[in-house]
Amino acid sequence: MKKFTIALGMAVLGAIISSPKVLAEKLNQPEPILIAQTQTQLKPQLQPPSINPQSTHTYNSGNSNNIETLLNQATEYLQKGNYDQVIENCNQILQQDKDNYGAYILRGLAYIQLEKYQPAVDDFNQAIRIEPNSHYSYFGRGYAYLYLKDYEQSLADFNQAIKLDSDFAHAYFWRGIAQGNLGNKQGAVADLKQAAELYKREGKTENMKTALDLLKQIS
């Protein structure tokens, strides 16, 4: 028996915004900006940084290999857009290991892609319970809360993601969106500027342009 550690290429939701329109006027309105009411199209982008989520269980080599295979397959399915199969794989994993961090993360991301935001929140809650120091879990939950229009909770989760990783560009970008929905123009501007700078450092030119385009609209 040995402690099972998985190496997972995890798909993180990034920021692509096509044809950003005027948010400045909406920032001056008394009601919060509802993302669905803006003319901004928010589309998730899959990017695969590597993390090492831990399982709290121990396994014999057979079970360990099976779970690792299912996780690797789920990652590939997520990147290919086969979200139902991601969920199926993760369900199988969780039947064997109810505390498998990677399975909750991947299934939560699949639920987000399917616009099933409350189940996504539930999965990220579990991921945070298992691994409270992972910024990916807070980022995913914050993203889901954003689309549930719970902007205060979304903001809190992005704050925590940034606390855990101060160079997490996507968290600054989406925190800026949350700030805008709460009517905080100054906060939205500051976050988008920081996101643009971090994207520039990372060589993510398109994401940098996206953030700068939004800044032009709200500055």
Automatic annotation (TrEMBL):
Keyword Signal on entry: yes
GO biological process: receptor-mediated virion attachment to host cell
A GO CC term assigned to this protein in UniProt: cell outer membrane
Cross-referenced SUPFAM superfamilies: TPR-like (SSF48452)
TPR repeats: 101-134, 135-168
Signal peptide feature range: 1-24
Zinc recorded as keyword: no
Alphabetical list of InterPro entries matching this protein: TPR-like_helical_dom_sf, TPR_rpt, Ycf3
UniProt keywords, alphabetically: Plasmid, Repeat, Signal, TPR repeat
Transmembrane segments: none
PANTHER family named in the record: TETRATRICOPEPTIDE REPEAT PROTEIN 6 (PTHR44858), UDP-N-ACETYLGLUCOSAMINE--PEPTIDE N-ACETYLGLUCOSAMINYLTRANSFERASE SPINDLY-RELATED (PTHR44858:SF1)
Name of the featured protein: Tetratricopeptide TPR_2 repeat protein
Organism (species): Tolypothrix tenuis PCC 7101
Organism placement in taxonomy: Bacteria, Bacillati, Cyanobacteriota, Cyanophyceae, Nostocales
